[in-house]
# Entry
Amino acid sequence: MTQLSTNFDAREREVSCRRFPIKNGEIMYAGGIGAVNITTGEAEMASDAANLIVGGRVESYVDNSNDGLCVDLKVGCFRWNNSGTHACTSAHLNKRVYVEDDNTISSDPGSHAVIAGVLVEIEGDYVWVDTTPNAYVAGADGADGADGADGADGASAFVYIAYASDNSGTGWSLTPSDSLKYRAEIQSAVEIPSPAAGDFAAATWVKYLGDAGADGADGADGADGDDGSVPGGSYTVQEADDTAGTKDIVTGLSSITSFEVQIRRAGVDVTGDAVLSATGGTITVADGSTYALTAGDVIAWLAAGTV
# Structure
């Protein structure tokens, strides 16, 4: 025939059923899912088995125990059981679903991924599946193509990076540091075992580390602290203090943050290992192992804290 030079009457025939020879010994049950073995071209009841593709709904009961019979498989949208193990959900709508057995549809591909069709609707424990995309038997994979020709050998390239303190290469180094804010890069077709400054003579030095920014504005003043006070005074030890071995000195502060105490006897510092402590606004002086409060001793004190 020659190339068309005018319109052609290509007539159309609607094909919803296709007839297939049945696998020897197979019984086809009407309404079940019919499959075709792509190796033999024979129909059998669908299952999760190798080399099967769904052909459609089985249109009639056929017992092929004695071989030689055929069956019609109809393409369309049919209702079958939803899997109880791998149920199809709304998440699988308009997506491919799979054969679990000859009347059950699964969302899981199983061992052999036998595609039942496209999930159209879920109706209680049933699903509606469009088998149309599976009406055609897939051909076997084609042979691998011949290997392509080897590509051209690539060219060797070595990259070296150096650092400097300015765009003239001052302070050249192969080791980066915060003080070396400029960077240069060279490429070589041969390896340079020990790069030197001269190797970067024609390189462009680019500033890659910025300078320190200006100081920020002063922050707002903090809130005023509580008024402080540094009172001080002296106290002459009395006989009662001598007997008690301890003396509390009230400073007039509500709390003490630090204090100093010196004890003098006849003008000589005898503080030694006197036990000194502060609680609230009170300083306590007590006997130590070598010092004992003695009438006439003068206790001079200074305290800092909150009024």
Q: What stands out?
A: The chain is about 0% helix and 40% strand. Confidence is low (pLDDT under 50) at residues 134-139.
